[in-house]
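Quick one, probably user error.
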């Protein structure tokens, strides 16, 4: 899966070194390539198993935080992962099989304000159930937040629940392009200080800043 490439330019704008967008092992020139990405299944019920039992990486987050966009930017197939013009519309967890080697699982968002309270609670319960007792445990959970907005009350609840159930957790501060370029690195560090031991990666599904570091992080759990 690891491909050495002399052309592995970091995505996005150049940043000063020692910033949270840079991968930790740049010298290795690791650049995971996604050469195959296909929709495998969408589920509303609780069966997270797949026939091939390949490892799963879960993408969770509030509605509209950019889960689908992040997966679309990683796979380079924006059409594969439908991003919603009507946020909060997706209720399926969608499985994308990558390189015939692992799955990225795009979860329905939680906390969508325009849903009824009952519907919101149902969704949150469903995600809690997944974290506690799903038949397949993900190798890691990438919690997508809006990097400009920061961690919301519901995100905190989710973070606590993810930690209580001893999952590997990484927070993706997405939409970082909305923060002025001079303030981006600091914004990510601010969020990092809030969550202490959980790692935070800055990201933009729009400009693909942070893509290399995110690839590496995903790969480290496979
Ligand atoms: N500026 C900006 N907009 C983004 C980014 N990621 C997603 N969006 C937008 O945010 C909205 C919600 O994205 P979507 O991927 O559907 O969110 P989801 O509900 O979490 O799957 C869409 O209008 C996206 O175009 C990003 O990195 N930067
Ligand atoms: Mg989505």
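Nope, works fine. Designed sequence:
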């Amino acid at each position: 899966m690891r491909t050495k490439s002399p052309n592995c330019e970091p995505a996005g704008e150049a940043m000063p070194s020692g910033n949270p967008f840079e991968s930790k092992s740049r010298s290795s020139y690791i650049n995971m390539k996604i050469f195959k990405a296909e929709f495998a299944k969408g589920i509303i019920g609780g069966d997270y198993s797949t026939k091939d039992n390949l490892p799963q990486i879960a993408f969770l987050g509030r509605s509209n935080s950019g889960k689908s966009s992040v997966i679309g930017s990683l796979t380079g197939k924006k059409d594969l992962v439908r991003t919603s013009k009507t946020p909060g519309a997706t209720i399926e967890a969608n499985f994308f099989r990558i390189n015939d080697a692992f799955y990225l699982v795009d979860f329905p968002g939680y906390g969508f304000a325009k849903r009824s309270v009952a519907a919101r609670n149902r969704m949150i319960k469903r995600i809690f159930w997944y974290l506690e007792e799903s038949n397949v445990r993900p190798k890691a959970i990438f919690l997508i937040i809006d990097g400009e907005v920061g961690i919301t009350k519901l995100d905190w609840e989710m973070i606590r629940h993810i930690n209580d159930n001893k999952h590997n957790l990484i927070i993706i501060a997405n939409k970082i392009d909305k923060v002025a370029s001079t303030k981006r690195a600091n914004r990510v560090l601010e969020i990092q200080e809030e969550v202490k031991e959980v790692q935070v990666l800055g990201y933009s599904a729009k400009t693909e800043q942070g893509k290399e570091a995110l690839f590496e992080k995903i790969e480290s759990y496979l």
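Residues 171 and 200 are 5 Å apart (CA to CA).
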